[in-house]
């Protein structure tokens, strides 16, 4: 496999990235919105969200991230929300290239770290992250507030 070109997402990538996002949803075994909804969402990303893509003859992977503050020492960092590589390109260094690109963005902008989550039951992925020098942060617990619980909390009146 040729070395992928890594670059920032542009709106002309919407259709190709939509296909990859559909594959990602299938990989995780979760429902996927209609293509038109995904394409519309890609046109109106929330402020601060950045996506980089890896491409050869087509887009084969992406990383989505945002700046966060504060971190240790009251320094900023990046949070990588998603890293995904199409099944056909996995194991060829595409994920590493994407993480390196995110690291370059962090360093160029003066951020002091990158944080992300990973599935505990994917030893190949965990091995990749460790090989890059990333350290698992076992002292933290990942929480999520979504769906009805999110709505109920938002509607709750403070005493």
UniProtKB/TrEMBL annotation:
| UniProt KW keywords | Acyltransferase, Transferase
Every copy of the N-acetyltransferase domain together lies at 4-159
Reading the lineage from the top rank, the first entry is Bacteria
Q: Does the keyword Acyltransferase apply?
A: yes
Keyword Transferase attached: yes
Give the Gene3D superfamilies listed for this entry. Answer: 3.40.630.30
Query: InterPro entries this protein is in?
Result: Acyl_CoA_acyltransferase, Diverse_Substrate_AcTransf, GNAT_dom
Q: Which Pfam families match?
A: Acetyltransf_1 (PF00583)
What name does UniProt use for this protein? N-acetyltransferase family protein
Its source organism is Labrys neptuniae
């Amino acid at each position: 496999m040729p070395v992928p070109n890594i670059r920032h997402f542009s709106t002309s990538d919407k259709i190709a990235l939509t296909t990859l996002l559909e594959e990602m949803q299938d990989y995780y075994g979760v429902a996927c919105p209609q293509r038109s909804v995904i394409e519309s969402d890609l046109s109106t990303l929330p402020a601060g969200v950045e996506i980089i893509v890896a491409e050869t003859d087509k887009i084969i992977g992406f990383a989505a991230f945002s700046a966060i503050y504060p971190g240790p020492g009251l320094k900023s960092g990046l949070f990588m929300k998603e890293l995904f590589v199409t099944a056909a390109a996995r194991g060829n260094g595409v994920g590493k290239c994407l993480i390196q690109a995110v690291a370059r963005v962090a360093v160029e902008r003066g951020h002091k770290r990158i944080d992300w989550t990973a599935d505990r039951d994917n030893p190949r992925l965990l091995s990749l992250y460790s090989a890059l020098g990333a350290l698992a942060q076992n002292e933290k617990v990942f929480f999520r507030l979504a769906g009805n619980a999110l709505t109920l909390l938002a509607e709750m009146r403070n005493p």
